[in-house]
Specification:
The complex is a heterodimer. By secondary structure, chain A is an alpha+beta fold. In chain A, about 20% of the residues lie in helices and about 45% in strands. The two termini of chain A are about 30 Å apart. Helices cover about 30% and strands about 25% of the residues of chain B. Chain B is globular and about 75 Å long. Classes of the chains: A alpha+beta, B alpha+beta.
Chain lengths: ~160, ~425
């Protein structure tokens, strides 16, 4: 495999930290141009072409999401959430074309306006090398909460 | 005061023509009174026939605070029952949706047909001759009504008909549904579930008020539309851009874009359909409705509608409000798929929906935030009136019995509160 496990772990942990710290531009730079960012609703396995998701973004929409967060007009992040997440249970699956699929679990504590929310779930990343840098072309977040009533989800998950 | 007796609320003192009192949003006593008089008495939107497509398909819902089952029987009728076993009161159906030809209570095995008849009582010899199974069927919801596939229910055996309740709102449901060349929408694309720490009426008031608050709260989204679709709808002073805000009898509210220059469907143009898809849709519409009518239906698109007390029909979806407590509300956003259209059209509707709506949607997330701030704000107990006076000098009485005003006015809210006061007093 062209991609070492250490590189993969570094990438996954760094991505988590960038989300926790609202480092929007650096996070955006992790994506490939053909990116898909998917947070399913109700059920982890529904077909996004036929069922609604909580988030189903292409690269353009990921950029819009970031522009919005940076604009000062994403009111659900004014003031921003304080967050720390723990990412663990990493499993790596090699694919063709120097692509790897990474499975991990997370627990995220979010505090905003004195209210603590615990978010948790499993993430599937597909990573590949692009011009010497590891990038994510696909990220699917299987929220444990995706079939329950949740507050607004505007921070990066 | 005797046990169980409640102090009566004087709604006349809390609801004036041009303002309402903050207590209406935070007083638990008023909330309980609303559950009795609105949610456990009047017509409430509970679901759509497409959610129970097959014989035996069921969904469980709440009607006010009461658990209900919506189930399709073998004769393909849709029945509504209280989700309560006639034996000891256990819930009979546990899942939010499922399919079963028999509904069996798992506590003692009492089993009901999809028509609600009690068909199995284990160890029936334990009852004497006074026990007759036909006396113990599931309790039917007293009144059920259907309109264009949407299911409404009332726990009161008497009252106005669903037809009277919907009144002028039917025209707007028609517009939404007629965008399908088969004249049917389907709520089978899942649901986004959300909640906010605020009173349910705040979402009612926020839901079809986009024209006034959009330029502030949703400015980013408007700017996006401008950049993507080349439509600048950002100047509220250009009155010709704006449509009308309407109140309808029975507390319904409408943001009617037709008189204005802006069609709400503009968001759809953000999406780029593959070649030929749009033409195929238009052809299917023409075949069904005739060329002229089809073009008018497509050009009119749908308007934004709130149907009292808990249904929002808006652009891509149908939204259901479910009060939990005086300051907590659950929301269910269900995209409406158009039956008989190229699949790409429905997929684009899903993507358009996610862009704006649901817990991570660019519009909804800000709305949920602003409603929570609103609930916090009204904790300040001075100058407790919320002003609803916009456009009071320029609204007209609609021939349908409601009011019509400028798109940024609050006549629709005054109309909803007039209805509320009538029901609650």
């Amino acid at each position: 495999m062209g991609i070492k496990r250490q590189q993969i772990e570094d990438f996954i942990y760094r991505e988590a930290r960038l989300m926790d710290e609202h480092r929007y531009d650096e996070w955006l730079a992790l994506w490939t141009d053909d990116a898909v960012y998917w947070v399913p609703s109700n059920n982890d396995e529904l077909d996004p072409m036929q069922s609604v998701s909580i988030i189903y973004d292409d690269r353009g929409r990921i950029s819009d999401r970031i522009d919005r967060l940076k604009s000062g007009m994403a009111y659900a992040q004014k003031p921003p959430s304080r967050m720390r997440r723990v990412v663990s249970n990493l499993e790596v699956e090699e694919g063709g074309n120097d692509e790897v699929t990474v499975y991990s679990n997370f627990v995220l504590t979010e505090i905003r306006r004195g209210i603590r929310n615990i978010w948790s779930g499993r993430t599937v990343h597909r990573l590949r090398m692009e011009n010497g840098d590891l990038k994510m072309g696909f990220k699917k977040v299987l929220l444990l909460e995706n079939d329950t009533e949740i507050p607004s989800l505007v921070f990066l998950i | 005061m005797a046990l169980g007796e409640r102090p009566s609320v004087n709604y006349e003192q809390l609801i004036k023509t041009d303002r309402v009192h903050g207590r209406l949003y935070y007083d638990p006593e008023i909330f309980r009174d609303e559950m009795d008089k609105i949610w456990h008495c009047g017509w409430v939107y509970v679901g759509h026939e497409s959610e129970v497509p097959e014989a035996g398909s069921y969904v469980t819902r709440q009607l006010g605070f009461q658990p209900i089952i919506i189930v399709r029987d073998q004769e393909r009728n849709v029945n509504l029952f209280l989700n309560r076993c006639r034996h000891r009161g256990n819930t009979v159906c546990q899942h939010e949706h499922g399919r079963s030809n028999l509904l069996r209570c798992e506590y003692h095995g009492w089993t009901y047909s999809t028509r609600g008849e009690l068909v199995v009582v284990p160890y029936a010899e334990g009852y004497d001759e006074r026990f007759q199974k036909q006396d113990y069927g599931l309790t039917a919801v007293p009144r059920v009504g259907f309109y264009r596939g949407f299911i409404f229910a009332s726990l009161s055996p008497t009252g106005i008909s669903l037809d009277e309740h919907l009144g002028g709102a039917k025209e707007y449901i028609d517009m939404f549904v007629n965008l399908s060349p088969e004249g049917e929408v389907e709520l089978r694309a899942g649901v986004q579930k959300a909640k906010y720490r605020g009173n349910w009426k705040m979402m009612a008031e926020n839901s079809v008020e986009g024209t006034y608050h959009a330029h502030f709260l949703h400015k980013f989204h408007f700017d996006l539309i401008k950049a993507r679709a080349g439509v600048d709808a950002s100047d509220p002073k250009r009155a010709e851009v704006w449509g009308h805000i309407r109140s309808l009898p029975e507390g319904h509210m409408v943001e009617d874009f037709r008189p204005g220059k802006r069609a709400p469907g503009v968001l759809a143009k953000i999406e780029r359909f593959p070649p030929g898809v749009w033409d195929r849709y238009v052809k299917a519409m023409e075949k069904q409705y005739g060329k002229e009518s089809a073009h008018k239906i497509i050009a009119d698109d749908s308007q934004f509608v709130f149907i009292f007390p808990n249904m929002v029909v808006l652009q891509t979806h149908v939204r259901r409000l479910q009060p939990v407590s005086v300051n907590l509300t659950h929301l269910y956003y269900q995209p409406a798929l158009l039956k008989g259209v190229p699949p790409e059209i429905n997929t684009a509707r899903l993507r358009e929906h996610e862009y704006g709506f649901g817990p991570a949607g660019f519009l909804s997330a800000d709305d949920l935030e602003i409603l929570e701030r609103n609930q916090l704000g009204i904790e300040a107990r001075a100058n407790e009136w919320l002003l609803l006076a916009r456009g009071i000098h320029r609204e007209e009485i609609d021939e349908r019995g409601g009011s019509v005003g400028h798109g940024t006015d609050e006549g629709h809210l005054r109309g909803m509160w007039r209805h509320y006061k009538r029901v609650m007093s």
